[in-house]
Amino acid sequence: MQTGRFVDLIHKKKEGKPLEPQEIRDMVSRYAEGKIPDYQMSAMLMAICFQGMDDEELTALTLAMRDSGETADLSGIPGIKVDKHSTGGVGDKTTLIVGPLVAACGVPVAKMSGRGLGFTGGTLDKLESIPGFCIDLTEEEFFRAVRASGISVIGQTGNLAPADKKLYALRDVTGTVESIPLIASSIMSKKLAAGSDKILLDVTTGSGAFIKDLEQSRELARRMTAIGRGAGRETVAMLTSMEEPLGFAVGNNLEVKEAIKTLRGEGPEDLREICLALAGMMLSLGKEGLSYKEGRSLAEETLDSGAAYGKFLDMVEGQGGDLSYIENMDKFQRAACERELTAGEEGYISSMDTEGIGITAGILGAGRETKESVIDHSAGIVMKKKIGDWVRRGDAIAVLYSSSEEKLDRAERCMQRCYTISDRRPEPLKLVVDIIR
Question: What is the architecture of the domain spanning 82-327?
Answer without folding.
Answer: 3-Layer(aba) Sandwich (3.40)
